[in-house]
Amino acid sequence: MIFYIEKEIKNSPQVKKILKKFPKAQTLEIDNYKNIFDKKISWEIWENIFVLAKLKSNPITSAPPKYWHNWNAYFFKTSLNCIFDCSYCFLKWAFKNPYPVLFLNYEDIQSEIEKKILSIKEEQKNWKNFDFSSEACLSDSEFCSKKIENFSIFPKNQIRFYSSDYSDIQGFDFMSDFNENFIKFFEKFDNVMMETRTKSWNIENFLEMAKNWFVPKNLEIAFSLNPQDLIEKYEKWTASLESRFIAINKLLEKWFKVWLRFLPLLPVQNYEEIYKDFLEEVKKRIDMEKIFSVFATWLLYTKEDYKKILAKNPELDILYQLQDWWDWFFREREKVRKNFYKIFEEFHEKTIICLDEKNLI
Fold it and tell me: Could you count the other beta carbons within 10 Å of the beta carbon of residue 344?
């Protein structure tokens, strides 16, 4: 294992903790993480290299319209790249190489998040007379295509932060100690939620919390699910479906908030039969009454990104099942999307179809 470490943070407590976990690792000092991260290297090469750095830019970006039901939903980053290798992932064309970068100046990142939360809460003081739960409000803002009755379980004006858009945070936690640093940080706020999305089997740190009688109120653990055959074909190095079922049930037993995320829905041959059988298996293996919410969406690329991933991975069969839409996105074909709508509407009433609008069909 090799760690490239920015000189500016080489003596930070977080770096020292990581190096203590891996005493045999080789360490090399660098001036800037981009010296490594911007090198063009084949994604087929994996050399067990990690880059430890300080994030100097703003860690927060707004979630796109229709991503969720909230007015205030944001991504924040503490890392770039992933230890998993999903063939359809946007990271494959977003970055020049597969080397993971961990930004370890957690206090700085938390400070920016807290400023954002306090700023939003100050704005919300002027919103007391506005009904954010109204269907008209959602429709006008185009935040989601589902009806408002499916959102009744969510508090008004909730602020949401997504932690896993740039990598699988949970998969990294054995090294980064992300959970130790951020879960308790988010607990001090009211009506603020952090989502950790994962395809990992690593839940030991959550179970340790439960042993100490601590189940976070502001944490939602979202498991991304697909049929096992598709996991094996398209989601390299991720946990098996069986492992994800086991992890989900263990967390539900300890009263953690667990989401199911069916994404991306893949337009493979015989997809209707495959997904119907798969969802029946999900119902048998998981008590859906305990699931906090269900989220589903399919492959979605901007036209520019679609060209890039197609150039990098011309053998990826599912890319050729997408359709060029007038809104500058490539989505799955009309018939496929209609069929997926029907399959998931029948699956569970909590299912939210996002990053899409039925009126596009």
Answer: 20
Tokens 């970068």 correspond to 101
Element (H, E) at 229: helix 228-234
Tokens found for residue 234? 């398209």
> What CA–CA distance (Å, rounded) separates 177 from 130?
40
For the CA atoms of 312, 316, 320, 322, the dihedral, rounded to the nearest 10 degrees, stands at -80
Judged by DSSP in three states, 166 sits in: coil
Sign of CA dihedral 237, 353, 331, 76: negative
Rounded CA-CA distance 287/308 in Å is 40
**Cβ atoms of residues 225 and 261 within 8 Å:** yes
pTM summary value: 0.87
List pLDDT tens digits, range 69-125.
567 899 999 999 988 989 999 887 778 888 899 999 999 999 999 999 999 998 887
pLDDT one-digit tens code per residue, 290-323: 998 898 888 888 888 898 888 888 999 999 999 8
pLDDT at 357: 58
d(CA 73, CA 63): 5
CA Rg value for the chain? 21
Whose CA is closest to 34, among 46, 18, 49, 51? Answer: 51
Cα distance between residue 293 and residue 193, in whole Å: 14
Tokens encoding 4: 């490239």
Q: How many Å apart are CA 245 and CA 223, to the nearest integer?
A: 9
Instruction: Give the number of residues written for the chain.
Output: 361
Helix (H, G, I), strand (E, B) or coil at 189: coil
CB atoms within 10 A of CB 11: 9
Question: Do residues 353 and 341 lie in contact, with contact meaning Cβ atoms separated by under 8 Å?
Answer: yes
Q: What percent of the chain has pLDDT over 90?
A: 60
Which domains, and CATH codes, for the chain?
A: 2-360 (3.80.30.30)
Q: Determine contact, residues 354/264, Cβ cutoff 8 Å.
A: no
Q: What is the pLDDT of residues 8-27, one digit of tens each?
A: 999 999 999 999 999 999 99
Q: How confident is the model at residue 136 (pLDDT cuts 50, 70, 90)?
A: very low
pLDDT score of 360 more than 60: no
